[in-house]
Each structure stands twice: as C-alpha cells, then as structure tokens.
C-alpha cells in the first residue's frame, strides 16, 4: 500500500487539485487528510472535492475542524481563530458540518516497508499542540508518550521535515494550501519503505484570482497572505517557537 498524506489544505482548492493530480500519477492507494482541511477561502468546494474520493480518503481532525463545527453549531471561539471559523462555517451546509464532526484524532495504517504509521494533525494527544523540527527530544518524548508506532506523521505547523526523536521517526509533510517557504503545495508519499517529501507547483496568481472570486469575506486578504506572498519558514519558526511549551 502506498499512502499520500495531505495536511493543512486550508480550503485552498486550486492547490488541492494540483496535488490530487500528482497523487493520481504516483498511484497512491490511500489519501490521508491530516486535518485543517476546510479552514480557508473555499471550504464547501474543498470538502465536496475530498468527499468525492470516497473510501480512498482517510480523514483525521485538526483544530480547524473542531472550530468550524463549533461555529456552525453556534459555539464560536474567541479572537481571530473564532472569527475565521465563523467565516468558514457560514459558507458550508449541514452535510459539510456532519462530514467534519466526529473525525478521529489519530489513525494508524500499515504501510508497505514502513510498518505501522500513526497519523495525527498536531500531536497524538491534542489537535492544537506545536512541535517543530528543532524541538528538543525531551519535548518530542512528552508529546509522543505512549505511542508505540515507529513512525509518526503530523502536520499543523505547515513546514515539511523528516527527523529522528529518540529512535522514533517523525515526519511533517508540510501544507498543501498554506505553505511557509518556497512556493508550492507540499505533501508526502509513503510506501515501499520510503518517505518522500514532495512539492507540487501550481499557478499562485491564477489560484489567488479564483479565491478572490469566491464568497469568503476575507478572500483577497487570504490570497495575498498565503498564496501570492506567503510567510517564510523563518518567520513561522520564530512565531511558533514560543508556542511549543505546555
């Protein structure tokens, strides 16, 4: 079995479509959706595209799914996060909400040549916890306590890496729809004993125009911040480092 891992799509449908074309070319048997799927400018369209994958898709929830469901159900959060979730919740229907509700925090699959692989959005214990490529081993041991799988794949921080943490391998595929760093849509392909960190190019300006034409109230701002002029990995690491402590 070969598994494609798509994290942090953030409702960037043009980036997702480009990646799915690559996934089909690579012949992936399963597609793991690693959370923060619909939190962005084209949530309904993105969910419809992914729902069409049927049983080929394996869904994991992130903090974004929890927040959008809460907003849809009339339990909006605080601050910018709550406002973003409310904007997305206003653009989806009950069927989309039901698709996001009750998704698992973790999923484990046996992958050819790699054995059992645990997939989660942020960490196996929380959907909003920050761990980074340069987080110390003690931090990794804390967030992965009780995990027996030799390979853990997580997202949330939008930056790809592949590292060891006390004899355990941890991989982040990067973000499909909201990358920090060089342009492109980032994902991973697992199988045949190999982990490949992949980047799919797509036309950012055309994608931005499509996003701006949508109904999201912050579409123009979103397109500029995350598609045409995204933050660097250095900026993201600086912002997230202070959030890695319990």
From TrEMBL:
GO terms for cellular component: cytoplasm. Pfam families: Metallophos_2. Residues 1-181 form the Calcineurin-like phosphoesterase domain. GO terms for molecular function: phosphatase activity. It comes from the Bacteria. InterPro entries: Ap4A_hydrolase, Calcineurin-like_PHP_lpxH, Metallo-depent_PP-like, Pesterase_MJ0912. Belongs to the metallophosphoesterase superfamily. YfcE family. This is Phosphoesterase. It comes from Dactylosporangium matsuzakiense.
């Amino acid at each position: 079995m070969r598994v494609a891992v798509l994290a942090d799509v953030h409702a960037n449908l043009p980036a997702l479509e480009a990646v799915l074309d690559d996934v089909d070319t690579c012949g992936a048997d399963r597609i793991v959706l690693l959370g923060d799927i619909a939190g962005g400018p084209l949530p309904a369209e993105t969910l419809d595209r992914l729902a069409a994958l049927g049983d080929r898709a394996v869904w994991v929830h992130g903090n974004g799914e929890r927040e959008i469901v809460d907003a849809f159900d009339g339990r909006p959060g605080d601050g910018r996060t709550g406002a973003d979730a409310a904007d997305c919740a206003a653009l989806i229907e009950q069927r989309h909400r039901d698709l996001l509700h009750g998704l698992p925090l973790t999923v484990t699959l046996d992958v050819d040549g790699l054995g059992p692989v645990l997939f989660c959005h942020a960490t196996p214990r929380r959907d909003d916890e920050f761990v980074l490529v340069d987080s110390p081993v003690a931090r990794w041991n804390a967030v992965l306590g009780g995990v027996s799988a030799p390979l853990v794949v997580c997202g949330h921080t939008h930056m790809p890496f592949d590292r060891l943490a006390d004899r355990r391998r941890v991989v982040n595929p990067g973000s499909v729809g909201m990358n920090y760093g060089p342009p492109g849509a980032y994902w991973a392909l697992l199988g045949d004993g190999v982990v490949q960190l992949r980047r799919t190019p797509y036309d950012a300006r055309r994608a931005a125009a499509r996003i701006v034409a949508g109904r999201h109230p912050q579409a123009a701002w979103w397109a500029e911040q995350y598609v045409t002029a995204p933050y660097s990995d250095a900026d993201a690491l600086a912002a997230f480092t202070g959030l890695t402590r319990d």
